[in-house]
Structures are given as structure tokens and as C-alpha cells.
Design a protein that fits this description.
Pfam families: Cytochrom_B561 (PF03188), DUF568 (PF04526). Heme b binds at residues 208, 244, 277, 313. Residues 167-368 form the Cytochrome b561 domain. May act as a catecholamine-responsive trans-membrane electron transporter. This protein is an alpha+beta fold and 392 residues long. It folds into two domains: 30-195, Sandwich (Immunoglobulin-like), CATH 2.60.40; 200-374, Four Helix Bundle (Hemerythrin (Met), subunit A). The chain has seven helices and 14 strands. The radius of gyration is 31 Å and the shape is elongated. The chain starts with a helix and ends in a 17-residue tail after the last helix. The chain binds 2-acetamido-2-deoxy-beta-D-glucopyranose (NAG) (2 copies). One 2-acetamido-2-deoxy-beta-D-glucopyranose is lined by residues 57, 60, 62, 145.
Length: 392
């Protein structure tokens, strides 16, 4: 017979043991390897739930490592790399593990730049490479030759969502991904990791995104709507004109600031180029600057060139409208913020679209009615949706 006291003691102990093991499994020291292989040092890497175990043999400059991480999605990849020439991804010599035809494999890649990820030999010797997968965690085992008397190495690690035709697909660019690098001190001295850089860069990208969405993506279209529809109402003349001007001039000012942050970001990200987004951005800036000059060179309303000026001004305006919205979407794809931001923008732009359609209909009704009123009088004037030529 087990007495109640004993029963509760045993229960309490098992709960304690359970708790203890589950907590300690969150750190590298509790991780075990096949054949009871032991490594002299281990490290809980600060991002992407990854771990590194290693033994450094300085007598023959060899480093035996195990890197553990969960791939970003089930059929994704994990990677651990040494960068002999710099601190980031560009230039790193990577071991990447993923499932190929259902079998987990590890391959070596020379990542000379963000766009060139080539399966190749590395710039140092690697041997005894293999990978294992269990419980959603992949382990990469390898031995690498390190420079003689090395004390530190630049390490970079990463996880990605998928593999297409044997090639690892692009990983995300969240803070965690950007911060997945540091200096590995081989003898167990102070380890250092990338910290604020990813954060401040992300902040800059968000500022760039917000400025440009507000200017090219929202204010410009609103200014166009004002110019096209509000002036139909005679009572709104010349208020629509000042509204239009202030809307577009503030859009321009914010847009130029956003454009500047974009150029800065572009110049800071060596190796990554979003050519389409960049070129559209430059075109937008040039066209918008042209519009500002057009304002200054505007012929008087009754000048014979005024109609040409109108065609030109409207043409450039609509081009900016389309390119601006297009580039905002390209930007969303690059920055890849939480879905809700893109959805919010789609809602705003759809609402503006619906408002425009309604106003378009109202404008036609107003103009047609005006026309039929006028047609009973000697001179019919309003023959155009723009309806402005004959005012004042
Ligand atoms: C270095 O020594 C270790 C342990 O003795 C051995 O396993 C490894 O193969 C050696 N590496 C080289 C490059 O000779
Ligand atoms: C990696 O690629 C770069 C650029 O193509 C090249 O210069 C370098 O020699 C390559 N490294 C190795 C180890 O193949």
C-alpha cells in the first residue's frame, strides 16, 4: 500500500523532474548527440532558436561543429556559415541542409553576394559532413579547417521556408533573420552577436515605407481626385485649385523625403538591388519634379497653349498616379511587412477608387444637366467633363 503522503511526494517529484527537464531542454547543455559524441563548448544562439556546439582543436586547426535549428517551415532549410572576409551574408561560406527527395542532405555554398548562391567547394576544407532531422529540428554536423592560430570566426546562420528544384529559397528579412550573425570565440571567450543593426535598419525601412505610402500612395491620388472632380462644382472654384496644390506639394515634399531614404537604403545594402523598384522611384521623382515646374510655367487660362499644357499636365499626373501605386506594391513585396499593412493600403486605395467612380458618375450627371440647360440658350459652353474652360 502506498500511503497518501508518499503518493504526493512521488507526484511532486515527477512534476519537478518534468518541469526541470523541459526548462533545461531550452538550452544547449542538455542536447545530446548520436554515439554520445561530446563537444567541448556550446552556445544558445540569440536568434532563430538555433544552437551551436563545437570542439576546437588548435593543434591541427580543426573545428568540429554541430548546428541545430528548426527550418522556417516544414520543408525548409537551415544554414550555418563562416564568413572569412566580412560579417554578413555576402562572402560567407555556407553549409545548408534541407530535404532532397525525402532525404536530408547538407551541401556547401559559396555565397559571394546576395544574388549569387552557388553550390561549390568552400574556401576552406570541410569533411565528415552530414545532417539529421528529428522533431522538426535539423542538425548539421561538420568538421572544418580554420586558419592557423585562429581565435575568432565570423559566423552567420539562417533558416528558410522552402527549397525549389534543389535550391534554397530566399529567407525572410525580419529582425531575427538580419541579426543572425556574430563573432564566434573559439576558445570560449566572450561571444558577440549582431545587435541593434538589424533593428535600426528595419526602422529605416519602415520610415521609408510609411513616407512613400503616404505621399505617392495616398496624397497624390487624393490630389488627382480633387482636381478631377471637385472643380465640377462651380462653388468650389477656386478652392479646389488651392486644395489640389497643397495636396500635391505636400505629397511632393513627403515623397522626396521618402525617395531620399530609399536611395540611402539602396546605397547601404551592398549586393542587394531591387532594380525595378529603384527605377520606378527615380522616374516618379523626375516626373513629380517636372509637375512642380509645370505649375510655374502654366500659361493663362485663355492662352492658346493652355490646352497643350493641360494634356501634358494630366498625362504626367496620371502616369505618376499609376507608377506611384505600382511602386507602393513593389515596396510591400520587398519589405514584406505584416499582412495587415498591405491589406490596409488595399482598403484605402479601393475606397479611393470607389469614391472616384461615384464622383465620376455625379460629374457626368452635373455636366449633362448643365449642358441641357445651356443648350436652350444661345451659346452652349460646357462640352467637356473638365467643365472648367468657360468659368470665370
Ligand atoms: C585534427 O585532429 C582531430 C583530433 O585528433 C582529428 O579528428 C582531425 O581529423 C584532425 N584534423 C586534421 C585536418 O588533420
Ligand atoms: C566564390 O565566388 C566568388 C565570386 O564568384 C569567387 O571569386 C570565389 O573564388 C569563390 N570561392 C570559392 C571557394 O569558390
Amino acid at each position: 500500500m502506498v500511503s497518501p503522503a508518499k503518493f504526493f511526494l512521488i507526484l511532486g517529484l515527477s512534476v519537478f523532474v518534468l518541469l526541470f527537464t523541459s526548462v533545461s531542454s531550452l538550452t544547449c547543455t542538455s542536447q545530446k548527440f548520436a554515439n554520445n559524441q561530446l563537444y567541448s563548448k556550446c552556445l544558445d544562439l540569440p536568434s532563430l532558436s538555433s544552437y551551436l556546439h563545437w570542439t576546437y582543436d588548435s593543434s591541427n586547426s580543426s573545428l568540429s561543429v554541430v548546428f541545430l535549428a528548426p527550418p522556417a517551415q516544414r520543408d525548409g532549410w537551415i544554414s550555418w556559415a563562416i564568413n572569412p572576409t566580412g560579417t554578413g551574408m555576402a562572402g560567407s561560406q555556407a553549409l545548408i541542409a534541407f530535404k532532397s527527395n525525402g532525404v536530408i542532405t547538407v551541401k556547401t555554398y559559396n555565397i559571394s553576394s546576395y544574388t549569387s548562391i552557388v553550390q561549390s567547394k568552400l574556401s576552406f576544407d570541410v569533411w565528415d559532413m552530414r545532417a539529421e532531422e528529428s522533431d522538426g529540428l535539423i542538425k548539421i554536423y561538420a568538421k572544418v579547417k580554420v586558419p592557423e592560430k585562429a581565435e575568432k570566426l565570423n559566423q552567420v546562420w539562417q533558416v528558410g521556408p522552402s527549397v525549389t528544384a534543389g535550391r534554397p529559397d530566399k529567407h525572410e528579412f525580419q529582425t531575427e533573420n538580419l541579426n543572425a550573425k556574430g563573432t564566434l570565440s573559439l576558445n570560449g571567450g566572450e561571444q558577440s552577436f549582431s545587435t541593434g543593426e538589424g533593428d535600426s535598419r528595419l526602422k529605416k525601412k519602415n520610415i521609408h515605407g510609411i513616407l512613400n505610402v503616404v505621399s505617392w500612395g495616398i496624397l497624390f491620388p487624393v490630389g488627382v481626385i480633387i482636381a478631377r472632380y471637385v472643380r465640377t462644382f462651380q462653388s468650389a472654384d477656386p478652392a479646389w485649385f488651392y486644395l489640389h496644390i497643397s495636396c500635391q506639394v505636400s505629397a511632393y515634399a513627403i515623397g522626396v523625403a521618402g525617395w531620399g531614404t530609399g536611395l540611402k537604403l539602396g546605397s547601404e545594402s551592398k549586393g542587394i538591388q531591387f532594380t525595378g523598384h529603384r527605377n520606378i522611384g527615380i522616374a516618379l521623382f523626375s516626373l513629380a519634379t517636372l509637375q512642380i515646374f509645370a505649375l510655374l510655367l502654366r500659361p493663362r487660362k485663355d492662352h492658346k497653349f493652355r490646352s497643350y499644357w493641360n494634356i501634358y499636365h494630366h498625362g504626367v499626373g496620371y502616369t505618376i498616379l499609376v507608377l506611384g501605386i505600382l511602386n507602393v506594391f513593389k515596396g510591400f513585396d520587398i519589405l514584406d511587412p505584416e499582412k495587415k499593412w498591405k491589406s490596409a493600403y488595399i482598403i484605402v486605395i479601393a475606397a479611393l477608387g470607389v469614391i472616384s467612380l461615384l464622383l465620376e458618375a455625379i460629374t457626368w450627371v452635373v455636366v449633362l444637366r448643365r449642358k441641357s440647360n445651356k443648350s436652350t440658350k444661345p451659346y452652349g459652353g460646357y462640352n467637356n467633363v473638365d467643365g472648367r474652360q468657360q468659368q470665370t
